[in-house]
Amino acid sequence: MAYVVINKERCKACLLCTEFCPRQCLGVDAQMNSRGFHSAALLHPEKCTGCRICALMCPDVCIDVYREAKAEPVGGKAKA
Amino acid sequence: MTTTLCTDEQVFGRSAGLTEARMHYCPGCTHGLIHRLVAETLEELDVLDRTVGVCPVGCAVFAYDYFNIDMIQASHGRAPAVATGAKRAVPDAVVFTYQGDGDLASIGMAEIVHAAARGEKITVVFINNSLYGMTGGQMAPTTLVGQATTTSPLGRDPGLAGYPIRVSELLATLDGAVYITRQAVGSPKAVQATKRALRTAFQVQLDGKGFSLVEILSSCPTWWGQSPREALTWTETGMAAQYPLGVVKDTTGSGTE
Ligand SMILES: Cc1ncc(C[n+]2csc(CCOP(=O)(O)OP(=O)(O)O)c2C)c(N)n1
Ligand code: SF4
Questions:
Q1: How many domains does chain A have?
Q2: Contact status of A43 with chain B (Cβ, < 8 Å)
Q3: Closest CA relative to residue A42, chosen from A71, A7, A78
Q4: How far is the C-alpha of B104 from the C-alpha of B185, rounded, in Å?
Q5: Does the residue A38 lie in any domain?
Q6: For A6, which residue in chain B has the nearest alpha carbon?
Q7: Number of folded domains that form chain B
Q8: Do the Cβ atoms of A58 and B33 come within 8 Å?
Q9: Which residue from B43, B35, B103 is spatially nearest to B63, judged by alpha carbons?
Q10: Among B33, B91, B232, B242, which residue carries the largest CB count within 10 Å?
């Protein structure tokens, strides 16, 4: 599982990220930011693979990308 | 899913080479994207603390607020002369100019030609968006034949305004220039190629080999009257037809792209 964190105040809604996301995870935020832009938003987190293409194309460096840590059983990983 | 869990692995974040300032560029303008690539390259080369950038006059005039490094703002077109002084005074510094096509190829053509001819050991990031963005979308030396701008509303007429200048090819004739490449940022693949080209260009400087320049076809959605997406496509179709992408000159002997 992966996800992106979009800095909505920095975003100017050019929406290049939504255009380039290969899995159509991103869309437009329903709320306006303080400068009057409906920023990009992660609408379908379940589809995100953390490929970074949105962040690569963002002209305003608004997007951080994370991959979720795998859940480990209590007591740590079993030795192979 | 919008909170950051500390155990999650961050696979993309803001470069330490950028400040936290919000950039003033128009929505979709690729000046910001190119700033990011330059900042990441300098960070990866571990030279942020000894880099001096020189900003142009043009939309990137405020780049000193965006790069988290030492910056100088030069008068219009004079960035290569200012960079020459900085590099000669502090040879260990990594010195680059960041210039638009109006700045570099119009009022600043003499400075860039002579800096390249002298083989100044500086790196030039040359932003070709085919017109003057800051002042209202006027025709530049790089405007394509037939391209409408605010001073060529019916399209550039070569009988009246001559032909576009291919700056990279022109500078490549000079012996002092050792690495010149033309890149674009219209797709994820192009963005990655541009980053590799920037890395090569800065490495040329670090190796003391001579003058290096990366021309980047950049979008100006505002004055092209296009959506951000359409403008990116036009860099790769309309512009790249006049300005072919790839290495224009490489005499470093390292076989670059
Ligand atoms: C000496 C002088 N002449 C003219 C100008 C007006 N002027 C400001 S920016 C500019 C051109 C900018 O175009 P470009 O270098 O292509 O950069 P862009 O804004 O497109 O990024 C001009 C002619 C000026 N500021 N100073
Ligand atoms: S006028 Fe053009 S070059 Fe200048 S910030 Fe706007 S889109 Fe970018």
A1: 1
A2: no
A3: A7
A4: 20
A5: yes
A6: B2
A7: 1
A8: yes
A9: B35
A10: B232
Closest residue in B to A53 (Cα) is B188
CB contact under 8 A, B12 and A16: no
Which structural domain, as residue segments, surrounds residue A13?
Answer: 2-67
Report if residue B110 sits inside a domain: yes
In a domain, B1, yes or no: no
Q: What is the 3-state secondary structure (H, E, C) of B59-80?
A: HHHHHHHHECCEEEECCCCCHH
Distance CA(B97)–CA(B9), nearest Å, equals: 35
Best of B4, B11, B196, B219 to disrupt the A interface by mutation (most A CBs within 10 Å)? B11
SS3 B180: strand
CA distance B2 to chain A (A): 6
* A73 part of a folded domain: no
* Nearest residue to B221 (alpha-carbon basis) of B146, B154, B131, B95: B131
Looking up residue A23, the CATH number of its domain turns out to be: 3.30.70.20
Confirm if B156 and B147 have CB atoms less than 8 A apart.
yes
- Domain holding B199, by residue range, is 31-250
Q: Give a yes or no: residue B22 inside a domain.
A: no
pLDDT tens sequence for chain B (257 residues) = 455 556 899 999 999 999 999 999 999 999 999 999 999 999 999 999 999 999 999 999 999 999 999 999 999 999 999 999 999 999 999 999 999 999 999 999 999 999 999 999 999 999 999 999 999 999 999 999 999 999 999 999 999 999 999 999 999 999 999 999 999 999 999 999 999 999 999 999 999 999 999 999 999 999 999 999 999 999 999 999 999 999 999 999 875 55
pTM: 0.95
Instruction: Evaluate whether residue A25 is within a structural domain.
Output: yes
Buried b (16+ CB within 10 A) or exposed e, B12-26: bebbebbeeebbebb
Q: With respect to residue A52, please indicate whether it lies within any of the assigned structural domains.
A: yes
CATH value at residue B111: 3.40.50.970
E runs forming strands in B140-245? 177-184, 211-217
